[in-house]
Specification:
This protein is of the alpha+beta class. It contains three helices and six strands. The chain has a six-stranded antiparallel beta sheet. The longest helix has 14 residues.
């Protein structure tokens, strides 16, 4: 099963005031905040990446893998997904707790030696 575009749009709308973007990844979606990957949207479910963010903030979530064989993320249940204020706080706290990714190396054009 895969995620519907409507689910992705709903999550984007819920996080509207944050600096977020989504990207298609392997048939599902990654969600970025402040250019850090903070979660995955798989099978119409949001999974927030584990971090050192305050544990009590994530009491509404449960550990679960976003896909078979994956590490555990924090699965966001439907009622928490509807709570825009909580969702924005949880995603921003996760982004704040994650390290800044290293800059990407420029790609070498094909055929260049």
């Amino acid at each position: 099963m895969s995620t519907s575009p409507g689910t992705v749009q709903f999550i984007e709308d819920q996080l509207g005031t944050l600096a977020i973007r989504t990207a298609a990844m392997f048939g599902e979606y990654g969600i970025y905040c402040d250019e850090k990957i903070v979660g995955l949207i798989c099978d119409d479910t949001l999974f927030i990446k584990p971090s050192d963010a305050a544990a009590e903030l994530f009491a509404r979530t449960e550990p679960a893998p976003p896909y078979p064989g994956a590490k555990l993320y924090r699965r966001v249940p439907g009622e928490a997904l509807e709570d825009r204020e909580w969702l924005q706080e949880a995603v921003q706290a996760t982004a704040d707790a994650l390290p800044t990714p290293p800059p990407k190396k420029p790609r070498t054009p094909r055929g260049a030696a």
